[in-house]
TrEMBL record:
Database matches in CDD domains: PLPDE_III_AR_proteobact
Catalytic residues (UniProt): 34, 254
UniProt EC number: 5.1.1.1
Gene symbol of the encoding locus: alr
UniProt function note: Catalyzes the interconversion of L-alanine and D-alanine. May also act on other amino acids.
This protein's name: Alanine racemase
Cofactor or coenzyme needed: pyridoxal 5'-phosphate
Protein family per UniProt: Belongs to the alanine racemase family.
UniProt-recorded Gene Ontology molecular function terms: alanine racemase activity
């Protein structure tokens, strides 16, 4: 019987891609599968999302793993190559390349690639992390057009606050991007991450770049995945390894941070920060056992979590759901002062991955 394991439902991934297409019917989909497919297993995600138009990763090594696994779609390196020596490898493996800096532009100008590459020119419309300043964009664009190693240019930018529409920052970034790129009408454009796909249809343009919504998590703090029509793809599970009675006044775990106010029963479950469950999850964070939610109590340790079950009839071996449909990863993240993205990415190698297809149960791998 499995202890800590992550069940990934390939049908949920496909469902979420279909939702992206519902939200952005006119756009091509660049599915963002960096950081091991947001912790879901990049290769399995790419295979499940084979109807996506292209994939995006952050680093060349991530793209090479996908190629080795047989993925033939276009793959974009969102941040481009980090040194000029990587250009030839990236091009030889059919990668498309982000360009956000002068050194990357110059490397492309000097390169002698066997076949020219598609370049995604990243314009900094206000996030101020990566990207070419709007006033430099024309120079970059013109030089890229003249570079023999460049096949064509896609114009892109990234939003800083698409998940906080009330700030107005997305509209300001969109306006600046539109103004800066208005003379280059023939070129394709890409702006929208998950939050903008849902919240800013006018930002969808030619290519949308969904990440978190593909995995069935919400990009917004105040809207949950179900409300957005998304299905959580990962269920993080384990089982009960001990049932203990605790007297009123007794405490549990490191630092004795929680004390029973009355006689109660605790279960110990095989899951901890050594599996990627957040150590800072406070007492009260829910888990699901036999269809009912119970609060974790005391500190999360490396391998174990304690749960107050009151007088419920729960036995050793019973299954525990840490996140999935209920509670969602976003709910747990909120209680821990973080975002679902981080929890999904933090699953460690000790957790066993199990892939299912809830629409085709025979297809389990
Ligand atoms: C450039 C870029 N585009 C798109 C995404 C996808 O964002 P999200 O997961 O919020 O949809 C990311 C993720 O960080 C990104 O860095």
């Amino acid at each position: 019987m499995l202890t800590a394991h992550a069940v990934i439902d390939l049908a949920a991934l496909r469902h979420n891609l279909a939702r992206v297409r519902d939200y952005a019917p006119e756009s091509q989909v660049l599915a963002v599968i960096k950081a091991n497919g947001y912790g879901h297993g990049a290769l399995a995600v790419a295979e499940a999302l084979s109807t996506a138009d292209a994939f995006a990763v952050a680093r060349l090594e991530e793209a090479l793993k996908l190629r080795k696994g047989g993925i033939e779609h276009p793959i974009l390196l969102l941040e481009g190559v980090f040194d000029p020596g990587e250009l030839g490898v990236a091009a030889a493996h059919g990668c498309e390349i982000g360009v956000h800096s002068m050194s990357q532009l110059e490397a492309l100008e000097r390169a002698h690639l066997h076949s020219p590459v598609t370049v995604w020119l990243k314009i900094d419309s206000g996030m101020h992390r990566l990207g070419v300043a709007p006033e430099q964009a024309a120079e970059f664009y013109q030089r890229l057009q003249k570079t023999p190693s460049v096949k064509n240019v896609v114009l892109m930018t990234h939003f800083a606050s698409a998940d906080e529409p009330e700030t107005g920052q997305t509209e300001a970034q969109l306006a600046l991007f539109n103004q800066c790129t208005q003379t280059w009408q023939k070129d394709l454009r890409s702006l929208a991450n998950s939050a903008a796909i849902i919240e800013n249809p006018e930002a969808q343009k030619d290519w949308v770049r969904p990440g978190v919504m593909l995995y069935g998590a919400s990009p917004f703090a105040d809207k949950d995945a179900h409300e957005l029509g998304l299905k959580p793809a990962m269920t993080l599970k384990t089982r009960v390894i001990a049932v203990r009675d605790l007297k009123a006044g007794g405490s549990v775990g490191y630092g004795a941070t929680w004390q029973a106010t009355e006689d109660t029963r605790l279960v110990v479950v095989a899951m901890g920060y050594g599996d990627g469950y957040p150590r800072h999850a406070p007492s009260g964070t829910p888990v699901m056992i036999n269809g009912k939610r119970y609060p974790i109590v005391g500190r999360v340790s490396m391998d174990m979590i304690t749960v107050d079950i009151g007088d419920a009839d729960i036995k050793e071996g019973d299954q525990v759901i840490l996140w999935g449909d209920n509670p969602t990863v976003d709910e747990i993240a909120m209680l821990c002062g973080t975002i679902g993205y981080e929890l999904l990415c933090n699953i460690t190698t000790r957790v066993v991955y199990h892939y299912i297809d809830s629409e085709n149960p025979a297809e389990v791998r």
